[in-house]
Design brief:
Helix content: 25-40%
Strand order of the largest sheet: 1-3-2
Oligomer: single chain
Distance between the termini: 48 Å
Shape: elongated
Order of helices and strands: HEEEHEHEEHHH
Number of helices: 6
Length: about 160
């Protein structure tokens, strides 16, 4: 879980329950790793759902408004893309050359990824809650294409032109 900055998320959630007086109106869930529920400040808890089936995962996404998905690596991370596509206001982090901010309007990509910044961002998102998230389909992502798909052919064409191949 170090790769997903789980300890940082726990610190942020503890700060969030300290600064957000309506935190008890929210259920805090974690999907993926299976662990016991974790007691947070003010009697709140992080409930572990463990590994979910695709159907359970999709249903959880449809019922979720805000989420946090961090990555301590420049490797692309699919959960924030999936979460934001389902309409979840998704807090993620900028890392080196990876910034998901342009993926859709549901992504909040933090350059300063401290527990305090995450907690304050989550508080703002929760205060903006109006009843449900709005799905934001990134058609290239949904259709399994990417803005990077044309790069190999563009590079090949440049090399052909430059070296008369």
């Amino acid at each position: 879980m170090p790769r997903n900055a789980f300890e940082l998320i726990l610190m942020a959630l503890n700060e969030w329950v300290d600064i957000y007086e309506d935190c008890r109106d929210w259920e805090i869930l974690s999907a993926g790793e299976n662990f016991g529920d974790i007691l947070l400040h003010n009697g709140q808890k992080l409930c572990s759902l463990g590994k979910l089936s695709l159907e359970e995962y999709a249903q959880t996404m449809l019922e979720t408004y805000a989420g946090i998905s961090l990555m301590v690596s420049p490797h692309p991370s699919y959960p924030p893309l999936e979460m934001s596509t389902f309409g979840i206001k998704t807090i993620t982090n900028f890392y080196a050359n990876k910034d998901l901010a342009d993926f859709n309007e549901n992504i909040v990509s933090l350059k300063n990824c401290s527990a305090t910044t995450i907690a304050e961002t989550l508080k703002r998102i929760c205060e903006e809650y109006s009843g449900q998230g709005i799905p934001r389909i990134n058609s290239k992502y949904a259709n399994k294409t990417s803005e990077f798909d044309d790069i190999p052919s563009e590079i090949a064409n440049e090399l052909k032109d430059k070296y008369d191949l």
